[in-house]
What does this fold into?
Amino acid sequence: MTTLVDFPVKPEARPYLDAFAEDAGEPQWLRTVRRQGIDRFARTGFPSRRSENWRYLDLQSLASEPLLPTSRAAQPALPADLPPGIWLRPMRTAIAERPELIRSLAAAAGTEAPLEALNAAFFADGFVLDVAAGIVVAEPIEIAHPAGTGDASLHTRSLVNLGAGSRVTIVETYGGSGKSNSGKYWRNDVAAWRLGEGASLTRVALVEESAEAVSLSEVAAMLGADARLDGFLALFGGGTVRQEIAVAMTGDRAACRIDGAFVVSGSEEANVVTAIDHRAVGGTTGELIKGVAAGRGHGAFQGKIVVREGAQQTDARQTSRNLILGRRASIDTKPELEILADDVKCAHGASVGELDEAALFYLRSRGIPQAEARRLLIEGFLREPIEGVADPAIREHLLRRLSRRLARLEDQ
It folds into this structure.
């Protein structure tokens, strides 16, 4: 059935507009958010390379071959039996039991960005984590986002809300296979993180999607005074993978650390996009992103740090280091600083190079076979950001997944 609207609709958006239907069982405020989202996407369609934020990723495959929302709710696997003061539920449950939290998420996220707008229209589930003030969660909380099935899209929306002085570690896995399996699907994931005064969030994302999957994630974080965010991104699998994190440093002395590693081969694409907005005094930011590309793989890092006029005494540093294996592989890197204050310490740097032949010759001269020597050098290059993960069990798990990914890299 064709949905009639009184404004021009982008051709690639028409199948999604036709698939949209309001659910009379949902609250009116949510139905309004969904209608605003689909209208916005119908007007704009998919983002293109003409947009600076998407210049390194082509979504033409999604525009030309629609992957419509699945009727099955894409519910993450959540742990049970959590201590008092920690409320963790699927998004569907939260809409019914904590509507005030979800309404605030909808207001914070908005529907301006095209894929965020489409997510607002179709999100089926996700998770909500609400941690009371002063609660320290000793063990990491693991959340598994299952792979999709069939030629369809999964739209999930989540919220992490940390009260003042609380502390939590979250490990999110996407796909979870770690193998070059088949399965065509599109994941469109949106999340909001809110850290109260003195709160601390450590979040690790491990992406091991299907070789045919498109996996896109947008996170909007807001940090209060003395809050700290430590994020790590491991992009080890998926046909097209993009992780975008935007952080608003709204409180004085807030601290943010975003590190990551990506590996692409074959015809894979991986993008890491960060935007850190310093709005208050005494904030600190550190970023270290490392990437490896082989075959016809393409990787990209776009990172922007903004220091606003009132954000004096900011200390912000951003580094992108990349390794190219072969003539057909490519990596783009675009670090940016926009500084409007004068009492700051800011720096950025980027490099793209090839494997060190002298180091490779040294290892081979010690009797190490060519393939093993290459793997050792590549793994050594990517270990640095992983070594920054504080939890030893999580760190060792990431190193094992990296080793497994590099074994497949050398086989391709």
In short: The CA atoms of residues 37 and 117 lie 4 Å apart. The longest helix spans residues 392-411. The first strand starts at residue 86 and ends at 90.
